[in-house]
Amino acid sequence: MSNQREQWGSKLGFILAASGSAVGIGNIWKYPHMAGQNGGAAFTVVYLVCILVVGLSIVIAEFVIGRRTQLSPVGAFETLAPKTNWKWLGFLGVASAFVILSFYGVVGGWIMKYVVISVTGGFKELAGDPDSAGNVFNNFITGTWSPIFFQVIFMTVCIWVIVNGVKGGIEKWSKIMMPLIIILLGMLAVRGMTLPGGMEGISFLFKPRFEDLTASSVVLALGHSFFTLSLGMGTMITYGSYLGRKQNLLNSALWVITLDTAIAMLAGVAIFTTVFALGANPAEGPGLIFVVLPSVFPQLDAGTLWGTLFFFLLFMAALTSAISILEVVTAYFIDQKGWTRKKATIRFGLVITIVGAFCSFSLGGGINITAFLGMSFFDFMDYLSSKYMLPIGGMLTAIFILKKWGVNQFMDELKSGMNKMTISKNLITILLGIAASIVGFIILIEIFDVLFGIKLIQ
Ligand code: PFF
Questions:
Q1: Residue 322 is part of a domain; what is its CATH number?
Q2: What is the pTM of this model?
Q3: Is residue 170 part of a domain?
Q4: Are 36 and 272 in contact, with CB atoms under 8 Å apart?
Q5: Ligand 1 neighbour 25 (Cβ under 6 A)
Q6: What distances in angstroms separate CA 42 from CA 55, 206, 225, 458, one per listed residue?
Q7: Is residue 225 within 6 Å of ligand 1 at its C-beta?
Q8: Does 81 reside within a domain?
Q9: 458 in a structural domain
Q10: Domain residues for 251?
Q11: Is the separation of the CB atoms in 289 and 110 below 8 Å?
Q12: 208 pairs with which residues across the strands?
């Protein structure tokens, strides 16, 4: 089966697809408001350390496992550790993909709705009035059918891209959308910085406020470094499995983390400069994108254009990430069950859309199937994946290499394609060890808190 496996068409195509997976709602929505609320540059420094120490080593680890086995996670772990329980780590990845895409697809739908509202001039009546913008947003997401309608369109586009294959679908669209995202975000950042008062937004985002940085901000930064780099569920294993041996994996991983981080910062600049220039509330938190920005854009010259460009670029970022999540599920059914790409994608795209509809209903549309933990089903799926599934998946991947597969075998595969670049075996061992220990510790803190109400750190 592996010799007919589809491959990426070019080195650049792979880097853009992998960074397309990384760059998503996490960068443009989550990072700016997290940094804004948790100490600005103080948070950003912690986040960068997490990306460099934990993120980089796990991105490399996933690429190596994927390319070595030419298989998606379940098959990959089964091949490297036959007849052991390690294959369950692959299944954890497939399960995480289900969980994440169910709520991610709903947010993708919201973004599409906001493209439509903006393009039809709907933000105009919200100018300078975040309260009305908040009402519009709440009425929309707590509705029953309207959010589902947009979620279904978003998921249909996602399914369509994947059905067209690795090269003809995922790579082709990543090569179009990633440069567009960077250009549009760059334009919005320049626009923001040149507005009177805009530069105050930069000092809000980049001036360290250590008094706002708590231990839980550190936990948040670590969890987010997994989410933003799409780690811990085999996405990068799956994308790595379509690679040939000439690709330089270290170089590719450095590109992915650099692009991901640069785009998150650029999004922060574009958003906060605009928010400050127009005197809106920067500490709005999660409502920043759907509540504050719609009331801010119409106050700019050509505001309809700027608002539409922003939501359109957010849509593209969400789409390139969503396709990478669905590809994990699709690749499992192709590799392990011998299904065709079309059958696997359509069937499971549909199942995830249905689970996602329940996420949406739980926000007020009528049905909330999780009464425990005091969260909506939507929040529960987000919580379960970012706080547990991805970190546990990432930690076990590091442990797998250190304890089961062996760093020597790992280095053997990593070196292929690296030409003159080198990285020491000891450094890799130390980084993977640190990654596994930090993540293990953080998960423990979370479990103690939830199960026993004991806060190991404040
Ligand atoms: N990295 C994406 C973001 O920042 O929005 C989210 C994501 C994509 C998480 C793919 C996990 C994944 F496998």
A1: 1.20.1740.10
A2: 0.94
A3: yes
A4: yes
A5: yes
A6: 19, 8, 15, 17
A7: no
A8: yes
A9: no
A10: 2-452
A11: no
A12: 40
